[in-house]
Amino acid sequence: MPNTFPEPLEPSSSLAERLAGLTSVTACYQCKKCSSGCPLTFAMDFYPDQVIRLALLGQEAQVLGCRTIWVCSSCETCTTRCPNNIDIAGVMDWLKEEALRRGQASPQPQVTRFHQTFLDAVLMSGGRLSEPLLLGLYQWRSGGTVAKLRSGALVEDLRLAWKLARRRRLVPRLPHRLKGVKEIKDIFKKSHLHLQKTQEKP
Amino acid sequence: MKVSYYPGCSLEGTAIDYAASIGGVSGLLNLEMEELEDWNCCGATAAHSTNHNLALALPARNLALAETAGRDVVVPCALCFNRLKVAEKALKGPEGAHLGVPYQGRIKIWDLLDYLTQDAYLKELAPKVVQPLTGLKAVGYYGCMVARPPAVTDKTDAENPQNLERLLKVLSAEPLDWSFKTDCCGAGLAVARPDIIDTLVQRLYERARRAGADCFVVSCQMCQANLDMPQKRIGQKFGRDYYLPVFYFTELIGLALGHPDVKKWLAGHLVDPVPLLREKGLME
To answer: pLDDT digit string (tens) for A50-84?
Structure first.
């Protein structure tokens, strides 16, 4: 775990100030209750308490580029247990969104791609998620089909898909087009614009 | 009783078996669940991870629909429930004005398990039990999103919920005590990082086994899928032979109350629960 810093840190308060608008992040006294209860620490590069600390010190490159924010499963255990009512899982979300806003490459491209494909699939199917569309699209965008075929992973996936299809649990159907499809499109459009607008702010 | 029903996307797809058992059980309990007309996806983890505004606006539309329908809304999917609650809090707070959604907060958002385990329903259930689930040792597994964070879900027992245990006792099953009933199974990462799921879910299998459980009982279709679908594969990976069927609580209500479609519902599982139920003398 790369949690040692040979170079002296240059603290900056700008990130802390922005996060303070979201939650009481500056109240953190490093009790590490968040990290103690986190079930995902084995897959993280920084523990949740370290993300909070680094954010408070303004270490933007570290927190926006770390694996932790993407492998966090949003189980909300940290937020529930924080004695200072810091919405730690909310901070993780904020950092992911900020990383995307800045166009930063994700250290967990599969996870980022899954989220984005999920939302694309909702929009494409007119407001409700079509699971076969999501899975197909994600597979296609992930590429590496030949490698998956060679390793046997694709056969495994297809076998599961077949089992589900036989149980009528994975049935490709025409999307259920909502009456409010235009509203849904507007919601997506406005949210996208909202994201861009926030991007333009210094 | 009549309520609005927000099934969520997966109950039209991979969790269609859960939807069927909910339909069956609501019939047994004279609960009329009217599907909310024109509901949309809540945005799920994908939205709240990448676009805060979208993550509020999508569920907010559903809340507006539910309020127009004028009845409390019952939600079987834990994540949908959570996102609707987040939107409810946002609409009532300072962010509400920006969302431009008419919502007064006159209706209540229920998670299905909470709704069906109210005292009145448990009392109604008890005399209808025709097949007591005697000898079925089960661990209740709640997962994350129905309970956490309490500031969003308004639950008072987020660390140690008891609904499933109370229900199982009414059905004469044997709910076991274990410390992992609200631990995360990582379902949101199941497609992108299955390796992570293997670790999280294998821990749950081991802990359930150590508690002496025959099976899991869940109320969340993502937990169900995540504990049921990869069980054989995870067993092979860790050199163990797991057989832990994962029941929806509605399936067990149906079984105890003698609903004729129980076998059909259970046929949707990948880990076939029928051998276990036969062994316990609960099914022919």
So the answer is: 999 999 999 999 999 999 999 999 999 999 999 99
Reported ipTM: the value is 0.96
Find the length of chain B. 284
B58 CB neighbour count, 10 Å cutoff:
27
Q: Is the pLDDT of residue A1 over 70?
A: no
Give the CA radius of gyration of chain A.
20
Is the N-terminal amide bond of B245 cis, ω within 30° of 0?
A: no
How many other C-beta atoms are found inside a 10 Å radius of the C-beta of residue A9?
11
Q: Rounded distance, CA A59 to CA A103, Å?
A: 17
Domain span at residue B274 reads 131-279
- Inter-chain residue contact B41 with A127, CB threshold 8 Å: yes
- Return the SS3 of B101: coil
pTM of the model: 0.95
Task: Say whether A122 and B233 touch across the interface (CB within 8 A).
Answer: no
Give the count of beta carbons closer than 10 Å to the beta carbon of residue B281.
10
Say which amino acid occupies B262.
Answer: V
The neighbouring-strand residues paired with B34 are B4
Q: What is the pLDDT of residues B95-129, one digit of tens each?
A: 888 888 989 999 999 999 999 999 999 999 999 99
Residue after which a domain boundary falls, among B84, B113, B142: B113
Report helix, strand or coil for B75.
strand
pLDDT of residue A68: 98
Task: Tell whether A197 is within 8 A of chain B (Cβ).
Answer: no
Sheet holding B32-35, edge to edge: B32-35, B2-5, B73-75, B109-111
Query: The domain spanning residue B225 has which CATH number?
Result: 3.40.50.11810
As for how many domains chain B has, the answer is 2
What is the rounded CA–CA span in Å between residue B120 and residue B1? Answer: 12
Query: How many Å lie between the alpha carbon of A49 and the closest alpha carbon of chain B?
Result: 18
Same structural domain, B155 and B228: yes
- Using the Cβ of B270 and the Cβ atoms of chain A, whether some distance falls under 8 Å is answered with yes
Percent of chain A with pLDDT over 90: 74
Work out the angle at residue B127's Cα, subtended by the Cα atoms of residues B121 and B128, and round it to the nearest 5 degrees. 80
The secondary structure of residue A87, as a DSSP letter, is -
Residue B122 is assigned to a structural domain of this protein: no
* Any domain includes B259: yes
Quote the radius of gyration of chain B (alpha carbons, Å): 19
User: Can you tell me whether residue B219 is helix, strand or coil?
Assistant: coil
The vertex-A66 CA angle with A64 and A72, nearest 5°, equals 100
Q: What is the pLDDT of residues B202-260, one digit of tens each?
A: 999 999 999 999 999 999 999 999 999 999 999 999 999 999 999 999 999 999 999 99
User: And the tokens for B225?
Assistant: 């899928």
